[in-house]
Sequence to fold (213 residues):
Amino acid sequence: MKTVLAYGDSLTWGSCPETGGRHPASHRWPDVLAAALGDSVTVITNGLRGRTTAYDEYLADCDRNGVRILPTIINTYAPVDLVIILLGANDMKPHICGTAIGALQGVRRLTQIAKNHMQGLSNGHRAKVLIVAPPPLVESDDPEFRAMFDGGIEESRKLASLYEKLAREMDVAFFDAGTVAEASTLDGVHLDAENTKKIGVALAPHVKKLLAV
Fold:
């Protein structure tokens, strides 16, 4: 049995732009991925709304810093065979980070942790890593979201190329979710049910190859 950790933000949690609630499990990309992989692989969903790559969000009622909590999460589900990192969208908020380079630095640190963490096991088991670039932000019909992510559209369009280069440098896998999915214009960030489902379907062959299943 192989274990995959899907580590992300509201795109992984399954935020629905139409309702403000959560998509049904059948349309959240980690669950779609799990169905495609079959019984030999367990996919753990660890998506937190508002999670950043490596930055504190003091307006939140929980710890959204992805770097700080990742080692604990990996140890919780050890042994983890693959960590899928889909983060960076919330880094586009100017009061948090606001730049693609800042998100890149955060993902670099996340990858270092995921790739090298010993998981508290005596056998030295370490996970493989798959970096996923989020779909770029789009123009929003919601004035609050437009202000919250001011300047983020242009910066978010840089993430895929930066993440891909990082993946090559660190010898980990990469996938650009923007090639199969796009954000909803309702808020400019989140995905409708069909688009989040597309990510799970598209990731399946890559994960199968990485895990040899």
User: Anything to note?
Assistant: The longest strand covers residues 2-8. The chain has one domain: 2-211. Strands lie at 2-8, 41-47, 82-86, 128-133, 173-176.
